[in-house]
Design brief:
about 55% helix, disordered N terminus, alpha+beta, 5-stranded mixed beta sheet
């Protein structure tokens, strides 16, 4: 609208600057509030993180660093857990690789890089100031060098290891990235890529203690989420108000107290789901790039790389990203030519992502039949999960923030966004609906339906924020139009008088001043954003007990002005607990603590040196083990003992088909077992039965501490007490007959028609496992023609003994199979081979035999990547081991890359070649 001469028009440039400053300030405030509640002073202390699954994740990056990378592998075999399992085949490797990247560095002290960071940052700041002051280039560089030298020298007077690590890990990459950005100001095409590469190079060369590296990667996904959401909304064309409020809404999600293990929020991350958080942040960035790419037909390479990285961080996050892209295709305008162009962009970038991630995804998919199903039951509290959040498994969980409020706001926001054609907001609302539908209809299976709930909660919060932002934006536009209409209605008396008096100079001066005016709509909109931000900070900050000038009373109520709350958000306390590390655990009323834990580790280390290396099975009891930092603390025995003492239990429960048999043994050998895998035929404490199964599984050491377990172990004929911890109650026994490979005295029995990747195999193998103590058979999925054959009896069709008369459940099937297998399996006795000279490497097993043709049972978990020379096989046998039939006296088994892995790597190389080709074609 053209205004009359002399009327002061609010400056669009000034309004734009105001909104940009507002958005930047809000994102910075949200990030600062988040970091302040994450105990940042503990990020750089040299401790080993613990707590929940995180305390066991310590093992994985170290194994990747110490073994796999040196062999030019990112996946491979390890004997450290579960009688061996394929490391990183069924669990994402990129998060652990990030830990290795941060941990690695040049052989220089971290203080050197801290001095460099301070000098470089100070010099860069001085250079900018000097250029702003219009100094010559030589003067600018001289000033920068002097300031850098002074700052670097001043750093000499500050000697704090944690501060040095913080400067080296955070300030140095930022300063180096800025230098790259500034140096390439005349080449804008290369600035972003060069800055990222420079920051990554700084991270690679700066050495960090291993525990610090793991902490930084653990917390990274949480810290960057507000900025990632801001980038998504900016790329998606959302207005400034929506950008700011969407970033604020991430606090609602990150500090959500309604779940603690599903993934994404702070409590889940501290429970060990940091890969989920990293994947979620990457997925959010990908969605923003996808919106921009679909609209401009650009950014294919970036989108493909981000989608591939999302899946390599966490597969569930990739599902979320793909659902969002499907929603975008539905909500963007349906003009035929444009829609076809968007579809081509989506398919091509998706194909590139598939190729770039094929090296890991394809082997995962190909071997999925060997995944262990923990039997997580489908969550059927639908109304509670999607609306009221009134039912929880733990007392510390709560409907905070109140989901109902934000579902209503999201629904209203979705309507407004659809009316206003806010495409990204529409897509997020539709994505939330897709996720909710998936939560309802996903069947019982390996994909636990609650794992997608965090995406629903995030889309609810973001849709509500974008809806409110759109409402504020609509109000701002209405105010600006009204202001413009009033200005256009006529000139003021002063303007008219100035015109008739010929005071043109004053009128021109007034018009010039108008360039610096801010519209009333912008002021009201900015104020509204500030109010909404403050409201969210107060809502989140009260349970966090972290508002300025707040105080906690003796009655346990936190008060901030007229507001008060007795609720407590445990997320920051979990950060503190976890990051104080194993080293910071004090004893409980019943004992335990870090001193007892280190004593246990030292005892097992000495036993390994004196009696030999081998796998250990430890008695489980959550209270005592939890006092060490996490009930999973003994899983780190291979980490602390230089991989001499392996643990029969590990973290990645789905990654090995041997997992069920560990939990069956744990139940027999513990007074308070976890019984983590559902629907198995568990028994109570029975050390005698447990010893038989430990011999079968090749367990060398049994560690017990409870009075009942220790007394039964001392009475067991095949256990020898060999040590005890000086400070704690642990007693260590050695199991006789634990050899990693042994000649069989009976031929294995091949079961015809048995699918060894199906539920049938688990039922049959557990039945054979339970029958092992009663001279039960070794069942095989396949084998030479000379081996006897049998068909399993159909016990499932038998009726229960109870009045229901229904078919047998899985546990009853396993028990009945164990009862009958010894009677119906054909028996062919043979002369067993004597195994000697066994040597077990990271990816190999070699031994000698005194006779050929007699099968040898190798007590290492079966996986198809194993091959053998000097023997036939390997064949998969119960419970989940391998049998080879020697054709010579020297046998060597090797874990190599399978054909599907070679094919997958070739596909990824094609994807990389496509990236190079696309870059070369860019104008």
């Amino acid at each position: 609208m053209k205004l009359p001469d002399g009327v002061l028009e609010p400056s669009r440039r000034t309004t734009s600057v105001l909104t940009s400053v507002l958005v930047g300030a809000v994102v910075a405030l949200v990030t600062a509030f988040l970091v302040a509640n994450l105990r940042p002073w503990l990020w750089f202390t040299d401790t080993t993180p613990t707590g929940g699954d995180l305390g066991a994740h310590v093992w994985a990056p170290a194994y990747l660093r110490d073994v796999l990378i040196g062999e030019l592998r990112l996946t491979g075999w390890t004997h450290d857990w579960y009688a061996g399992f394929p490391a990183f085949t069924f669990y994402m490797v990129v998060p652990s690789l990030l830990v290795v990247v941060v941990d690695a560095g040049l052989g220089l002290h971290e203080a050197v890089f801290a001095h460099l960071a301070v000098a470089l940052a100070a010099g860069a700041a001085a250079l900018v100031v000097a250029r702003r002051a219009a100094r010559s280039a030589s003067q600018c560089w001289a000033i920068a060098l002097v300031v850098a030298g002074v700052a670097g020298a001043a750093k000499l007077f500050v000697d704090a290891p944690a501060a040095d690590r913080a400067l080296a890990a955070l300030l140095l990459p930022a300063a180096v990235a800025w230098c790259a950005w500034y140096g390439l100001r005349r080449r804008p095409r290369w600035r972003a890529g060069a800055s990222v590469a420079a920051a990554l190079l700084a991270l690679v060369v700066v050495p960090m203690p291993y525990g610090v590296s793991l902490k930084l990667v653990t917390i990274a996904g949480v810290v960057v989420l507000p900025a990632a959401v801001w980038a998504m909304t900016r790329l998606g064309g959302i207005g400034a108000e929506g950008q700011a409020l969407a970033s604020v809404a991430t606090l609602l999600f990150l500090f959500d107290r309604s779940f603690n293990i599903y993934g994404g929020n702070l409590m889940s991350t501290m429970a060990g789901e940091f890969a989920y958080s990293l994947g979620l942040a990457t997925a959010v960035l990908y969605i923003g790039v996808a919106v921009r790419g679909m609209q401009t037909d650009r950014h294919r390479i970036l989108a493909g790389a981000l989608l591939a990285l999302t899946g390599l961080m966490h597969l569930f996050s990739a599902f979320f990203a793909l659902a969002a892209v499907a929603a975008l295709l539905l909500v963007l305008p349906w003009r035929a030519a444009e829609w076809r162009r968007r579809l081509v962009w989506t398919v091509s970038s998706g194909a590139l992502a598939a190729a770039l991630s094929a090296w890991w995804v394809l082997p995962f998919w190909w071997n999925r039949g060997l995944l262990n199903d923990m039997g997580w039951g489908k969550e059927r509290r639908y109304l509670s999960s999607l609306w009221s959040r009134s039912s929880f498994d733990y007392s510390f969980l709560a409907n905070d923030p109140p989901l109902q409020l934000f579902v209503v706001l999201a629904a209203a926001g979705a309507v407004l966004l659809f009316l206003r054609r806010g495409r990204l907001g529409m897509a997020l609302a539709l994505t939330g609906a897709i996720v909710a539908a998936g939560f309802l209809i996903l069947p019982e299976g390996r994909l636990w339906n609650v794992r997608i709930l965090p995406f629903y909660y995030l889309t609810v919060y973001l849709t509500a924020a974008l809806g409110i932002g759109e409402a504020i934006r609509t109000g701002r536009s209405a105010l600006d139009r009204r202001q413009a209409a009033r200005a256009a209605a006529g000139e003021t008396d002063e303007d008219a008088e100035a015109a008739t008096a010929g005071e043109a100079g004053e009128a021109d001066e007034g018009a010039g001043a108008g360039r610096f005016r801010v519209s009333a709509g912008a002021i009201v909109a900015s104020g509204s954003v500030v109010v909404m931000t403050a409201a969210v900070l107060v809502m989140v900050g009260l349970p966090l007990r972290s508002l300025p000038f707040g105080n906690l009373g003796d009655d346990g109520v936190y008060r901030w002005g007229p507001l008060s709350s007795s609720e407590s958000n445990l997320g920051p306390y979990w950060v503190e607990y976890n990051f104080e590390g194993y080293e910071g655990r004090g004893p409980t009323a019943d004992g335990g603590g870090s001193s007892e834990y280190w004593d246990l580790v030292a005892t097992m280390d000495r036993i390994g040196e004196s009696h030999g290396c081998g796998p250990a099975l430890w008695e489980y009891e959550s209270g005592r083990l939890g006092s060490y930092g996490t009930p999973m603390a003994p899983m780190l025995l291979p980490y602390w003992t230089d991989r001499c003492i392996a643990s029969m239990e590990g973290l990645y429960f789905e990654a090995s088909a041997t997992v069920p048999y560990h939990f069956l043994m744990q139940s027999e050998l513990s007074t308070a077992p976890s019984r983590a895998q559902r629907d198995l035929p568990y028994s109570g404490l029975d050390v005698a039965a447990g010893v038989e199964h430990m011999r079968l599984m090749g367990v060398r050491y049994y560690m017990a501490f409870s009075e009942d377990a220790v007394s039964q172990a001392r009475a067991a004929a095949d256990l020898t007490e060999i040590g005890a911890t000086p400070l704690g109650p642990w007693v260590v026994f050695e199991v006789s007959g634990h050899a990693p490979a042994v000649g069989l005295s009976r031929l294995p029995v091949v079961v015809d028609g048995l699918d060894d990747s199906d539920e049938e195999w688990l039922e049959a193998s557990v039945g054979a496992f339970l029958a092992a103590g009663r001279d039960g058979p070794v069942l095989a999925a396949d084998g030479p023609d000379a081996w006897p054959r049998m068909t399993l009896p159909d016990v499932r069709g038998e009726r229960r003994d109870d009045p229901s008369g229904s078919d047998l459940g899985r546990q009853e099937v396993m028990r009945r199979l164990s009862d009958v297998l010894g009677d119906i399996a054909p028996v062919e006795n043979i002369e067993p081979a004597e195994v000697s000279g066994l040597v077990r490497g990271d990816h190999s097993i070699s031994f000698s035999v005194d006779r050929v043709g007699s099968p040898v049972l190798v007590r290492t978990s079966y996986f198809p990547n194993w091959s053998v020379s000097g023997a036939q096989g390997p064949y998969r046998v119960t419970p989940n081991f391998m049998v080879v039939v020697p054709t010579g006296t020297e046998v060597r088994m090797t874990y190599g890359r399978s054909p599907v892995e070679w094919f997958a790597m070739a596909v990824t190389l094609v994807g990389l070649a496509a990236v190079v080709w696309l870059l070369a074609r860019r104008p």
